[in-house]
Amino acid sequence: MNDALAQLRTAVSLLREGGAAGDEVDWPAAAAELGVASFPEDYVRLVDAYGAGSFEDALFISIPRPGSPSAPLTVGRLPDDAVTSMSEWQEPTLRSRHSLTDMLVWGQTNAADALCWITSDVDPQRWPVAVWQRQGGGWKTYDCGAVEFLVRLLRGDFSECPVSDESLWRARTARFLNFRDEVRLLGAGVDPWTGESTDPFADL
């Protein structure tokens, strides 16, 4: 797909005009910490443009945070218990081709799906996307990058919805909220998606 990020930009707007957009990452430190040579170029550009946050509070993008692996929305490997429990594949023949220890999680959905790369190839530009579809029978792979995956999800360009939550499926457009803005607004007592007070007694 030619310049998938440009296509994503035409479909995605920031939830709040002038809101936070993009995050800075120490990419060499992140690569060293996660045991990879580098990261896919489309994803680096996605982080530069949008950063950690969510599309419509339905699909969440994580970023590498060197030195803070347990921080919210942080790229990381599947935990050991997940490697054991998340073993089903929608296409059983792929079980012998891919190891769950090669998964690197870059996103998730509010339906507890995991969006990953399979990092077995030394060239990150060739990492396919793998999705743990919690309500769809397990892992399935997609021969595209993270940004193209998002574009195709919004357009409905897969044979079926690749995630359990269909909020973004064929939506064409979506709003994005950077995690920094979400934290700031919640701290101020404001629901970032509705603009309403989170204080149940605010109107009393």
What does this structure look like?
By secondary structure, this protein is α+β, with helices and mostly antiparallel strands. It is about 25% helix and about 20% strand. The chain has 6 helices and 9 strands; from the N terminus they run αβααβββαββββαβα. Strands 1, 2, 3, 4, 5, 6, 7, 8 and 9 form a 9-stranded mixed beta sheet that branches. The radius of gyration is 17 Å and the shape is globular. It starts with a helix and ends in a 17-residue tail after the last helix.
The low-confidence parts are none
Euclidean distance between termini CA atoms? 53 Å
Overall 3D shape: globular
Counting H and I runs of at least 4 residues, what is the number of helices?
6
Helix content: 10-25%
Largest sheet: 9 strands, mixed
User: Roughly how many Å is the radius of gyration?
Assistant: 17 Å
Counted beta strands: 9
Q: Whole-number average pLDDT?
A: 92
Order of helices and strands: HEHHEEEHEEEEHEH
Structural class: alpha+beta
Strand content bin: 15-25%
